[in-house]
Amino acid sequence: MLKVAIVSGGYSSEYDISIQSGETVYNNLDKAKYDTYQIIVNPDNWLLKRDNGDEIALNKQDFTVLINDELLTFDYVFIAIHGDPGETGVFQEYLDGLNIPYSTCGASISKLTFDKEACKDHLKDTEVRLATSVLIAKGDEVNQEEVLQKVGLPCFVKPNNGGSSCGISKVKEAGDFQEALDLGFTEDDEVMVEQFIDGR
Q1: How far apart are CA 26 and CA 136, in angstroms?
Q2: Cis peptide before 85 (omega within 30 of 0)
Q3: What is the DSSP string of 168-182?
Q4: Residue 156 within a domain
Q5: Number of H helices, E strands in the chain
Q6: Which of 60, 55, 57 has its CA nearest to residue 100?
Q7: Which structural domain, as residue segments, surrounds residue 146?
Q8: Is residue 37 domain-shared with residue 101, that is, in the same domain?
Q9: Does residue 9 belong to any structural domain of this protein?
Q10: Strands 2-9, 34-41: parallel, antiparallel or unpaired by DSSP?
Q11: pLDDT tens digits for range 97-134
Q12: Tens digits of per-residue pLDDT, 44-89?
């Protein structure tokens, strides 16, 4: 039976959402087809979480767990980490180095798509229509009037690297711009101010 590690957690403010995602996958994968294990990743430890609540440290060197003197290895990894390191390419590079297959796209695509500015720059010469945007780095002098003149109101202010709507604001009035910028910088050192596009 295929041994599947369902990995959740991570190093960002998306940690709790990721844990919920991992639990959903763990509870719904067919146990008759797969031998499933929950792995929790946090900045301090990587842990195997057992159904009885016990936690056992995972060896980061080779992604194995020692249980009762038996070495547990994994055939496949379902990555349910939101944000860093699961969507940034870092975890994919780690698994590539161990030749363990996984559920997401590869490291280079993950890196590219998690960085909104880099992804838009990659797409600019294609036929993909892109919203007008301005990238602001922490510490930059910001001419609010120029920025809002370029993107218009309402607009979205969001961390350049981040997801799950953490640190994102829809700015409808110029007076709310600085607060939105400050919120975005709580998640990343770069913030994207982007044109609002009204959907159908």
Answers
A1: 39
A2: yes
A3: -EEE-SGGGHHHHHH
A4: yes
A5: 6, 11
A6: 60
A7: 116-195
A8: yes
A9: yes
A10: parallel
A11: 999 999 999 999 999 999 999 999 999 999 999 999 99
A12: 999 999 999 899 999 999 999 999 999 999 999 999 999 999 999 9
Task: Determine phi and psi for 177, rounding to 5 degrees.
Answer: -65, -50
Q: Whose CA is closest to 167, among 13, 53, 49?
A: 13
Domain count of the fold of the chain: 2
**What is the residue whose two structure tokens read 């067919």?**
30
What one-letter code names the amino acid at 160? N
Report the candidate in 8, 7, 15 with the shortest Cα–Cα distance to residue 187: 15
The first and second tokens of residue 128, run together, are 């993909």
CB 157 within 8 A of CB 177: yes
Q: Residue holding tokens 């607060």?
A: 179
Q: Which of 107, 122, 9 is nearest to 55 (CA)?
A: 9
For 71-123, the DSSP string reads EE--SEEEE---STTTSSSHHHHHHHHHT--BSS--HHHHHHHHBHHHHHHHH
pTM of the model: 0.90
Give which of 80, 67, 68 is closest to 4, Cα–Cα: 80
User: Residue 38 has which token pair?
Assistant: 């929950």
Residues 6+ apart with CB under 8 A from 124: 130
Strands 46-49 and 34-41: antiparallel
Alpha-carbon dihedral sign for residues 64, 67, 71, 73: negative
User: Would 126 be classed as within a structural domain?
Assistant: yes
